[in-house]
């Protein structure tokens, strides 16, 4: 994936800069030739790395330095200042790294360092470690896991099984720029076609896993064939809920999870004039925004009184509603669809809305059937410990299906966030190689509505206080969700630094215990 490169800014760092112009813990954007470069100081050490995040080109100089890493302001990826490695998703590719030299009170950026394709934080695979790792799932968690396994120089077999017909894609984009027609097709795959063969990853698409024999350490495919594993990662994700309504199987009614689903909606939108989106969830409303961008009239039907109130609270809910209304979306809240036919959607309240495109975004259900059949512990998700291992030794789970002990909310939680799934895939990869890495990342997600991004860090299912700093309507705010005076989560609009600082504060609190 890619996005337009920002302009080169700041001083020419090869010419040198007085060391005392950059205080300890500070960063500065400059350039070396045509490259945008970030110069950072930690104590008496100076680091120079590419200034542009490899996820969506976020400006790292506006991010947060934590120890010898920098976090991206947009979606909280994290890069090592020493090596440029993308140590935390959603970025997966490193940024370049330059050598620095301090002489006579000046710091100079010198030549580019050799690239670091492997991880600086390596788990040494124990003797007798795994020879074949099988990953079920070609989504966020599965892809991040296989990428990390090779980054760790795991030389054994990697088999990745996915019942999708497309290789791993940037799923969040399917309801945003790609659906809106603002992103080219080549943004969508997480890696080009050559990646899997170059990395020796046996990616098998359109391959359904029918069962797991945990005792024999075998995966059973739908065609009856079997694959032996030493370690197994279950990353089967979630599937859209299909409402039991008359008309749900009509050809103009869609759900959205895969690239194929998205292409079908785009094809239909080319001739459709009026769309009904069922559900005012994040995905439903992102779809509404994207269909507006394609010029369709859009109606949103949802049972709640305010969109997103359960997750973001009433004030943000009202804002989201008015934002969509400003863009022409027509809401039918406190209402549901009871039937769909070829021309219209029938509402519980008695009315009808004519529609030639219907998208149901009414939530997802984790795909737990394999885990259940294999006898794994299930509690509204696959139960895993802090190392993301299930009750069956050698079987790990990550992503939308995993319920893990979250040290921050001090509860076992399951979330449906892209970045969490990727980071869990990365942690599971390290642990499948014999590491003992606790999964303790603070949950993070983002959502995009027109030009308004909403970032959310932490996890608050309920709160007893909601504190607003700034002005939501002015698109400049931080909303803190607290219980017993403690901040559990923070939502923000155009307050990226506050969002990063909130994440770091929640991390510090867990360390203090
Ligand atoms: C349109 C859309 C937009 C989103 N936008 C955002 C966003 O902006 N921010 C955010 O934080 N989150 C977003 N999400 C949620 C995010 O995409 C998910 O949380 C994330 O993809 C979960 O990753 P996963 O690896 O657990 O599952 P998935 O990415 O769903 O991958 C699951 C994989 O398992 C495969 N699979 C399942 N069962 C089997 C089987 N039996 N045999 C073989 N293969 C199987 C599937 O084919 C798929 O390849 C969005 C989701 C959607 C659908
Ligand atoms: S642009 Fe940096 S994390 Fe997304």
How would you describe this structure to a colleague?
It is a single chain. The protein is α/β, with parallel strands linked by helices and 513 residues long. The chain has ten helices and 36 strands. A six-stranded antiparallel β-sheet has the order 1-10-9-4-3-2, with no helix packed on it. Helix 1 links the parallel strand 11 and strand 12. Helix 1 crosses helix 9. The longest helix is centred in the C-terminal third of the chain and has 17 residues. 48% of the residues are buried. The structure holds flavin-adenine dinucleotide and FE2/S2 (inorganic) cluster. The site of FE2/S2 (inorganic) cluster has 10 residues, from loops.
Chain-averaged pLDDT: 95
Name the poorly predicted regions.
Answer: none
- Structural class from helices and strands? alpha/beta
* Number of DSSP-assigned strands: 36
**Cα-to-Cα separation, first versus last residue:** 38 Å
**Multimeric state of these chains?**
single chain
Task: Please bin the fraction of helical residues.
Answer: 10-25%
Main-sheet strand order equals 1-10-9-4-3-2
The largest β sheet comes out as: 6 strands, antiparallel
In a few lines, what is going on in this structure?
With 513 residues, the chain is of the alpha/beta class. The chain has ten helices and 36 strands. The mean pLDDT is 95.
């Amino acid at each position: 994936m890619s996005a337009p490169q920002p302009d080169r800014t700041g001083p020419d760092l090869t010419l040198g800069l007085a060391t005392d112009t950059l205080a300890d813990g500070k960063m500065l954007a400059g350039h070396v030739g045509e490259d945008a470069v970030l110069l950072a100081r930690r104590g008496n050490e100076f680091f120079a790395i590419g200034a542009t995040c490899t996820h969506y080109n976020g400006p790292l100089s506006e991010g947060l330095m934590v120890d010898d890493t920098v976090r991206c302001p947009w979606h909280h990826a994290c890069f090592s200042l020493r090596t440029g490695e993308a140590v935390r998703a959603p970025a997966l590719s490193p940024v370049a790294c330059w050598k620095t030299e301090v002489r006579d009170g000046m710091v100079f950026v010198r030549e580019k360092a050799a690239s670091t394709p492997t991880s600086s934080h390596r788990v040494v695979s124990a003797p007798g470690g795994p020879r074949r790792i099988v990953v079920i799932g070609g989504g966020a968690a599965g892809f991040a896991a296989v990428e990390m396994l090779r980054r760790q120089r795991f030389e054994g077999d990697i088999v990745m099984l996915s019942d999708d017909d497309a290789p791993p894609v940037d799923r969040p984009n399917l309801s945003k720029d790609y659906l809106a027609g603002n992103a080219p097709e080549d943004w969508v795959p997480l890696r080009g076609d050559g990646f899997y063969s170059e990395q020796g990853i046996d990616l098998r698409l359109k391959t359904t896993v029918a069962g797991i024999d945990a005792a024999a350490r075998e995966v059973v495919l739908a065609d009856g064939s079997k694959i032996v594993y030493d370690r197994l990662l279950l990353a089967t994700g979630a599937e859209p809920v299909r409402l039991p309504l008359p008309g749900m199987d009509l050809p103009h009614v869609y759900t959205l999870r895969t690239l194929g689903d998205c292409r079908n909606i785009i094809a239909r939108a080319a001739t459709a004039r009026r769309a009904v989106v069922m559900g005012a969830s994040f995905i439903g409303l992102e779809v509404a925004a994207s269909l507006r961008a394609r010029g369709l009239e859009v109606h949103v039907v949802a049972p709640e009184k305010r969109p997103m109130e359960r997750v973001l609270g009433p004030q943000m809910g009202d804002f989201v509603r008015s934002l969509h209304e400003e863009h022409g979306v027509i809401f039918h809240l406190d209402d549901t669809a009871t039937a769909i036919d070829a021309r219209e959607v029938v509402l519980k309240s008695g009315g009808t809305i004519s529609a030639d495109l219907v998208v149901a975004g009414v939530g997802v259900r984790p795909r737990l059937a394999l885990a259940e059949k294999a006898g794994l512990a299930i509690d509204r998700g696959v139960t895993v410990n802090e190392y993301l291992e299930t009750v069956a030794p050698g079987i790990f789970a990550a992503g939308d299906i995993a319920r893990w002990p979250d040290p921050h909310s001090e509860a076992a939680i399951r979330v449906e966030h892209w970045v969490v799934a990727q980071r869990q895939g990365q942690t599971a990869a390290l642990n499948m190689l014999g590491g003992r890495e606790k999964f303790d990342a603070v949950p993070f997600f983002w959502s995009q509505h027109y030009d308004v991004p909403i970032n959310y860090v932490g996890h608050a299912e309920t709160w007893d206080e909601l504190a607003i700093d700034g002005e939501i309507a002015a698109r400049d705010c931080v909303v803190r969700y607290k219980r017993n005076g403690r901040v559990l989560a923070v939502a923000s609009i155009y307050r990226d630094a506050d969002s990063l600082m909130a994440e770091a504060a929640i991390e510090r609190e867990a360390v203090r215990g």
